[in-house]
Each structure stands twice: as structure tokens, then as C-alpha cells.
Amino acid sequence: ETGVTQTPRHLVMGMTNKKSLKCEQHLGHNAMYWYKQSAKKPLELMFVYSLEERVENNSVPSRFSPECPNSSHLFLHLHTLQPEDSALYLCASSQASGTPGDTQYFGPGTRLTVL
Amino acid sequence: DQQVKQNSPSLSVQEGRISILNCDYTNSMFDYFLWYKKYPAEGPTFLISISSIKDKNEDGRFTVFLNKSAKHLSLHIVPSQPGDSAVYFCAARSGSARQLTFGSGTQLTVLP
Q1: What is the predicted pLDDT for the residue at A98?
Q2: CB-CB: which of A55, A103, A108 is closest to B49?
Q3: How far is CA A62 from CA A32, A46, A58, A77, B15, in A?
């Protein structure tokens, strides 16, 4: 596997379910990110982890819970979601060098539908 | 209020001609700009970037122009190819901040 992978690619869940999204990066990067993309809207940053420590949380509801056990893996745990949470969830990673040229590389995304 | 705006949701261009995608920003602290391309069912792919100390960066068929006074950047693709058909996102960053602020994207269709 190369680059950034995400599983599952598609997920349908009820509002009372608990599920998790998984992201894995094979690029040797130190920072990982969760983004949300709703229809016709810009990508919204949800969480940033650098060296497994959460460094940013953009006022995301507590029904989204991230976990970063190591620099290669990132999870997004979901519980009691709402239909408006249906979106494409994208994971990204970067070297986190702190330089302007620190480019983020994205996974293919998980298309989430909440019924 | 969106700090990065792509006012054209779609653009159609004939194969071989130039595609020009535009992006405006409001935050004067932004000093690094990126363009990403996204195909359906795939994540965004980094395309080209530019620092605010430059006004032009070129990579093959892709050139990004930055006009700091107008807070405007554009991506030129020439010649356009059908494989360039995708959604193009403009993104901006301030200093060493990790956060990227994205525009809402422009769907480019290159007609054969």
C-alpha cells in the first residue's frame, strides 16, 4: 500500500449506531488530519494530530471522537450522529515540517450516510 | 464568511485551449497557496503551489499566478486535456500554521 488509505469507502449508519473510520498513511509523515466535505461546500478541517498529539480541534461536536494511536494511524469514532453529518470524510497527512511548503496528501475519503 | 472563494462552480473548455481557474481570498495573512485536483471517488491530489514572495510558479502545463494586491490567484492549464476534467480546489495557509483553508471548488470539463 502506498499513500494514504481510508476504510471503509462507504458507510451507512443509523443515528443510534457507533462506527469508526480508519485512516492509514504510508508516507512516513508526522501529522494527520480529518476533514469533512459536505455537498457544494469547502473542505472543513475537523482535527489535527502532530506526533500523535491533538493540536487543533475546530469546534467539532463531541459525537465525533478522534484517536491517533501512532503517527501512521488515525481513527474517527462516530456515535449518535445526525442526518446532517452525512458527508465525505477525508483524511490527510503531512510531514509537519512547519515550513510553508508542508503539503498535505489526502486519502480517497469515506462517504458517510446517516439515516 | 468564506476566506477563500472560488466564484465559478463550473468551467467548460475545448481540448487544446487554455483553462483559467480563479480564486480570491480575504485574509491578508495568507502567504502560501495551493491548488488541488479531485476526481470522483478519489481524495484531492496536490497539483501546484506558490509562496507569497513569488507572483508566478510553473510546472509543465500548469502555471499559478498570484496577485497579492488584488488578493487573487489563478491556475492556468495549457493545453487543456480531457484528463484534466476534475474539481479544482484552491487552498491557503498562514505562516507555519498547519490548517489549510479551502475554496468550494470549480468543476472543470475539458471537451474533446
Answers
A1: 62
A2: A103
A3: 19, 11, 11, 10, 48
